[in-house]
């Protein structure tokens, strides 16, 4: 179990720009996975990145050195950001790592406690790790159990009752500044889960005049369909966008600024609201110097999260009880799997002994048996073979469970 490790860098301890320095764009994930696995000699690896946290979930015999991790040439991070990341990151191993994983999945570590988006993001990260063949026993057992327990926490407690997400908090802040209707002109950049959630809320308010830009045009078309809009374009065409807008919403997986200062200055004359839900930021920070823009970003949302936590103290405690119980279950699951791995040679040896007995030791004795007797003996031997394989495994698992009790 000690091989299971998590390196966590989150909004609680690290500045947003530092988080952004270690965000890996989707198109580079395959190369990134391979580099990290080889560099740290990992058995398994999963990379979870959201708008407010980055989790390196690894399985390996060696403890991950934080400086080596954040200094990877792949990130191309500045020296100061590497130092800050090393200082702000939290490293967990064994049971502590599993506990952290459970807390993240139950949204107890989220910027907005109670939001369910994190569960979908974990599923997506797991599917990605699977696609890169980075998943084996530890990640398979832990992730599946963590998802199961998180679902239980959302159902059995009130942690997600009247829950808010990053997208819903941003939308609420937008409504505080501007009423939305069918005349509202909205420019959307990005087409991920967070953006889908935000756009569904906007569509319910009657917003229809929407232009969507995304790295892949196919996903832009899908998101535009939420508004029954046909204005969907590849991200490379954003610079040529000439229509005015009332609301600009950005949330992409880009590691660089997507909407630059020069573009912002010449794109709208009247007051507009810019919403940046990305990490690192999609919108040039110089936007704050432009009087015709009002900015809503993840840092503004974090203030709301503190109020949210106070309202959910009892639910948080209820989730902690579920997590404590789940840790015991996970410990047993891991131990059972270790027993299975340790005893995986038993079936091979039992089958070999059976074959040796039939073909060598008792070969002459068996020649004198009639067909009916041979069939009975064969059934007896097959039965004994199965029992000699299954019973030792069963007994070992029972011993483990009894020792836990």
Largest sheet: 6 strands, parallel
**Segments where pLDDT lies below 50 for 5+ residues?**
none
Overall pLDDT metric: 89
Radius of gyration: 28 Å
Per DSSP E runs of 2 or more residues, the count of β-strands stands at: 10
Helix content: 40-55%
Q: For the largest beta sheet, what order do the strands appear in spatially? A: 7-6-5-8-9-10
Secondary-structure topology with pairs:
Elements: E1 4-10, H1 16-21, H2 29-40, E2 44-49, E3 53-59, H3 66-70, H4 79-88, E4 90-93, H5 94-105, H6 117-131, H7 137-156, H8 166-177, E5 185-189, H9 193-204, E6 209-214, H10 217-224, E7 232-234, E8 247-250, H11 261-267, E9 272-276, E10 293-297, H12 298-311, H13 313-342, H14 346-361, H15 363-367, H16 371-404
What would your notes on this structure say?
This protein has 16 helices and ten strands. With 405 residues, it is an alpha/beta fold. It has a six-stranded parallel beta sheet. It has a four-stranded antiparallel beta sheet with strand order 2-3-1-4, with helices on both faces. Helix 11 links the parallel strand 8 and strand 9 (272-276). It is elongated, with a radius of gyration of 28 Å. The two termini are 19 Å apart. The mean pLDDT is 89.
């Amino acid at each position: 179990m000690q091989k299971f490790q998590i390196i966590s860098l989150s909004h609680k301890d690290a500045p947003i720009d530092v988080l952004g320095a270690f965000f890996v764009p989707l198109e580079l994930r395959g190369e990134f996975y391979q580099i990290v696995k080889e560099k740290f000699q990992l058995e398994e690896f999963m990379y979870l990145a959201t708008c407010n946290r980055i989790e390196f979930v690894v399985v390996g015999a060696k403890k991950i050195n934080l400086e080596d991790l954040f200094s990877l040439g792949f990130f191309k991070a500045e020296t100061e950001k590497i130092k800050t990341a090393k200082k702000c990151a939290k490293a967990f191993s064994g049971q502590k790592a599993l506990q952290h994983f459970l807390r993240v999945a139950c949204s107890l570590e989220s910027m907005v406690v109670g939001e369910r988006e994190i569960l979908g993001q974990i599923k997506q990260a797991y599917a990605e790790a699977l696609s890169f063949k980075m998943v084996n026993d530890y990640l398979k057992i832990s992730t599946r159990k963590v998802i199961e327990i998180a679902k239980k926490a959302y159902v059995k407690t009130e942690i997600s009752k009247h829950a808010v997400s990053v997208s819903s908090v941003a939308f609420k802040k937008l409504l505080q500044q501007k009423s939305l209707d069918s005349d509202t002109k909205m420019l959307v950049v990005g087409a991920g889960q967070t953006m889908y959630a935000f756009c569904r809320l906007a569509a319910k308010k009657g917003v229809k005049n929407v232009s969507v830009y995304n790295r892949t045009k196919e996903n832009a078309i899908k998101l535009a369909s939420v508004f029954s809009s046909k204005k969907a374009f590849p991200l490379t065409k954003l610079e040529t966008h000439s229509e005015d807008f009332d609301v600009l919403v950005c949330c992409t997986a880009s590691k660089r600024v997507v909407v630059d200062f020069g573009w912002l200055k010449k794109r709208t004359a009247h007051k507009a609201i810019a919403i940046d839900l990305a990490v690192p930021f999609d919108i040039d920070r110089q936007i704050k110097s432009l009087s015709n823009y009002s900015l809503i970003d993840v840092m503004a949302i974090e203030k709301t999260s503190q109020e949210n936590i106070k309202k959910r103290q009892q639910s948080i405690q209820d989730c902690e009880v579920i997590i404590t119980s789940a840790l015991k279950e996970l410990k047993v699951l891991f131990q059972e799997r270790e027993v299975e791995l340790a005893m995986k040679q038993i079936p091979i040896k039992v089958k070999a002994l059976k074959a040796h007995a039939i073909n060598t030791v008792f070969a002459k004795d068996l020649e004198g048996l009639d067909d009916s007797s041979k069939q009975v003996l064969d059934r007896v031997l097959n039965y004994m073979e199965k029992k000699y394989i299954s019973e030792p495994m069963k007994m070992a698992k029972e011993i483990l469970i009894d020792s836990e009790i």
